[in-house]
Amino acid sequence: MTACRALHLGNRIGSEGGIASVLAVLAETTVPGWSLSFVATYDRRVSRRGMRLLGPALLAVLGRPTQVVHAHLSERGSFLREGLLAAVARLRRRRVVLTLHGAELAEFAAAHPRLVRTVLRQGHVVLALSEANAAQARALLPAGDVRVLPNPIVVPAAPPDLPSAPVVLFAGEQGRRKGLDVLVAAWPMVREQVPTAELLVAGVAADVAVPDLPGVRDVGMLSRAQVHDLVLQSRVCVLPSRFEVLPMFLLEAMSLGRAVVVTPVGGVPELVGDAGRTVPVGDAPALATAISELLRDTQLAERLGAAAHARVSRTNSTARVGRDLAEVYDRLCRPQAGDVA
User: Considering Cα of 24, then 30, then 32, then 35, what sign does the dihedral take?
Assistant: First the structure.
């Protein structure tokens, strides 16, 4: 039986950012009965590349034989690029799926309500990464079909052993949104408790500079494979964000059985549950205490890491997400009575 086809539109696989990481994992995911293809619409590493990629993406939407066009949205220019492509796909009578990845959707929608609602209406189905994200989407699209489908991650059968060294890893945009400034403020307190602790900071530079502090090393922007290797070298992974949806760094860390320290923002509480340490947003002393406890107590770090691995195995494995995505696509391509194109 010939597989149906779904065309995914979003950041270039291999570029930086969460959407690119999600698409890279989706490219490795089996979606039963479906063949997935990927066309890049944006790559911020090259000036104005996003506009140059729009033409080929448009041709793909117009020309490729496909049943579903699946666009991945963040905010700002993404709503213009992917929104235009989704509208063209509707005109071509394709079934359209939109996935919302933006951490600041509510704020962006408040500033641009007409644009956001117009784009969301192009989707026959709108996928949110968490219940918190879905609630925002339903408020913007009360009559729309909004469902929760989390990001997938490759989960090993058993979590790798923890390293002996007290290494902490932060991976993400080096800015206030990800809470790097709070982590920097907390780090001297961590070193007071664990003098040999080392902090690795990975990610693209933004609005917080990595300071020259004892035990802190800025490793810069890394590939997905390099971040994976650093997770294996770390005992604790930390992301004290102010805004999030469902960060791939936390999924990677949890899938590899690492204890995580997080803040209760976006879909993070749903992802982590009690399989990690949660601290208030902006609270450097609480962050330092949580990190120090996990560095000193290896057994606690192992227990939380094992719980994290088990949690994402149930909810975010590529097998689970692939099956759920197939159900979304199948439902769209076999419309029920009363469905409106």
Answer: positive
Total residue length of the chain: 341
| 92-121 pLDDT tens trace | 999 999 999 998 899 999 999 999 999 999
Q: How far apart are CA 320 and CA 326, in angstroms?
A: 10
Report CA-CA distances (Å) from 191 to 194, 195, 217, 322: 5, 5, 14, 42
Distance (Å, rounded) from C-alpha 237 to C-alpha 202?
11
CA angle 36, 141, 107 (to 5 degrees): 95
Cα angle, residue 219 at apex, residues 183 and 49 outer, rounded to 5°? 105
SS3 338: coil
13 band by pLDDT with thresholds 50, 70 and 90: very high
Contacts of 252 (CB under 8 A, 6+ apart): 153, 227, 228, 231
Angle between the N-to-C axes of helices 77-91 and 49-63, in degrees from 0 to 180, rounded to the nearest 10: 20
Residues 278, 280: Cα–Cα separation, whole Å: 7
Domains for the chain: give ranges and CATH numbers. Answer: 4-152+317-333 (3.40.50.2000), 167-315 (3.40.50.2000)
For 150-176, the pLDDT digits (tens) are: 999 999 999 999 999 999 999 999 999
Residue 163 CA to residue 183 CA, distance in Å, equals: 22
Backbone phi and psi for residue 73, each to the nearest 5 degrees, phi listed first: -110, 140
Q: What is the pTM of this model?
A: 0.92
The CA distance from 25 to 151, in Å, is: 9
